[in-house]
Amino acid sequence: MKKQFAVIGLGRFGISVSTELYKLGHDVLAIDINEAKVNEIINDSTHSAVGDGTDERTLRNLGITNFDHVIVAIGDDIQASMLCTLLLKDMGIESVWVKAQSYYHHKVLDKLGADKIIHPEHDMGNRIAQHLVSEKVIDYIELSDDFSIVEIAAPPHMDSKTLLDLNIRARFGITILGIKRGKDINISPMADDQIHKDDILIVIGHKNDLKRFEDSH
Ligand code: ATP
Ligand code: ATP
Ligand code: CA
């Protein structure tokens, strides 16, 4: 179902939100105080307008009260971001999502009634880290400062190779304790057991050796 969104502030975040919403087929009104920014989004929004998001008359003239969702993506000017949020909530906008710059900004936005507060840099950093890790290491148990057990997805190049073929203990000094395959788990893998491509390997070893093994993919 087609929804109506207004995005106020067209920095990298605001532009990217607007463009994606528009691509997904929704109506997007994109607003910025800077005309050059507005020109950037003309072809990727339903309407675009130059305007100050801290001016109630401007917002009303743009018909902002007809929008169910407004995203405040004013960046460095924290005062403007807060005033804009206050006005929008006062005007009765149902859903106001705001990009925050700092912990204090976040706290004030919360008090002003912002419905969702976003920290794009922080959230994206988090997700990237999780993605980096989850691609290989699934779980992790620290045995000591030096030794741990990790669960790691079998890399594609190990498909159909036996432990002997791969010569893992000799090459990396680590030991495969178990091989998970779907619901089954082989808890005493032998040298001639094969690894399959969707297997999960449970591996014990020195952190440096485990790292070498992870990086060898
Ligand atoms: P990003 O990291 O997403 O690139 P930023 O956090 O660096 O953005 P700024 O570039 O400071 O944020 O601001 C985003 C946009 O908000 C700018 O294009 C700026 O012109 C616009 N802006 C600032 N004040 C207002 C205002 N009062 N009304 C409307 N737009 C505003
Ligand atoms: P090792 O010299 O390691 O004691 P081995 O001469 O007794 O091995 P096998 O036990 O058949 O011979 O193992 C041959 C090779 O297969 C090992 O050197 C090792 O590289 C690999 N291997 C066998 N089992 C495992 C395991 N559980 N984890 C990692 N590698 C294994
Ligand atoms: Ca920024």
TrEMBL record:
Name of a matching Pfam family: TrkA_N
GO biological process assignments: potassium ion transport
GO molecular function list: monoatomic cation transmembrane transporter activity
Protein name, as recorded: Trk system potassium uptake protein TrkA
Domain RCK N-terminal: 2-118
Gene3D superfamilies tied to this protein: NAD(P)-binding Rossmann-like Domain, Regulator of K+ conductance, C-terminal domain
UniProt domain RCK C-terminal: residue ranges: 135-217
SUPFAM superfamilies on file: NAD(P)-binding Rossmann-fold domains, TrkA C-terminal domain-like
Signal peptide start and end residues: none
